Amino acid sequence: MLGWITKAARGRYNETNKLPSGSDLDRILSETGLEKIELMLRMGHLSREIRSSIMGNAEQIAKLISPVKDEKTTPKRTPPVFRTKLGSLYQCDCLDLMETMENDSIDLVFADPPFNLNKLYPSKINDNLKSEEYLNWCEKWALECARILKHNELSINLLDRIIEMASNKGDLIFDPFGGSGTTYAVAEIKGRRWIGTEIGPVETIAERFNHIHEDQENLNRIRKDINALIHKYYHKRVEKGLWTPDSFREKAS
User: How far is Cα 138 from Cα 145, in angstroms, rounded to an integer?
Assistant: First the structure.
């Protein structure tokens, strides 16, 4: 009976992983003798309430669910299917590969994952997972990316490029994880409006704006180097009779 009720609850609410409510919830709890929190756990419905309870009882829960400790083995990496002088391509699940990578070993992570839009891929992966299943998968690869990534502060050079390419003066930029405030400083310098949040100390961010001229001078030096490089190659193209933005505009007109 327990299995049938649990299966019925899953069948009715599984698409959105929504917890049964009203008379459905009352009936399930009455006929199974389950507490609401146990039903939520059986459905994999980890609400904030349950997460808080898990955190508060972490030691006891860890003892219950920890596997028997075997001799630790290092995962074996699948050989690459293609190599260049600089890179290696692996035909495998990214989680399997990341499991073999050392902590803090990657300088930059770029990810363009499937977005669960029921799209057909050559790999024939299932791009139509249930919401909870898809979110759990995203959490797994995101946590692995965080583990292998070297945690360096975003450089003012990088933020300058991103903001320059992806926005215009007067645009509104939102960075929900303020850190040291680099995004906000660059946005301020480049004439972009900005909104930010930071759950930790914010005094260093505010203090940074008292010395924002230092970031401005740093950006000016970066821009000067970039402009000098562009100027150098512009004249080389002119000398070789190659097209330039100016010559292209003249022909277009």
Answer: 11
Token representation of residue 187: 């946005």
Q: Three-state DSSP class for 224?
A: helix
Give 194's strand partners: 173
- Beta-carbon contacts of residue 174 (< 8 Å; ≥ 6 apart): 194, 195, 196
The per-residue pLDDT for 116 is: 87
Residues of the chain with pLDDT below 50 are 1-5, 9
Please compute, for residue 217, the number of CA atoms within 13 A of its CA located in the half-sphere on the CB side. 4
Tell me how far apart the alpha carbons of residues 188 and 156 are, in angstroms, rounded to a whole number: 12
If you ran DSSP here, which 8-state letter would residue 175 be given? Answer: E
Q: Where do the DSSP E strands lie in the chain?
A: 82-83, 88-89, 172-175, 193-196
Residue 181 DSSP label: S
Chain mean position to CA 165: 20
Please give the radius of gyration of the chain, using alpha carbons only, rounded to the nearest integer. 27
pLDDT reported for residue 13: 57
- Residue 1: predicted pLDDT: 37
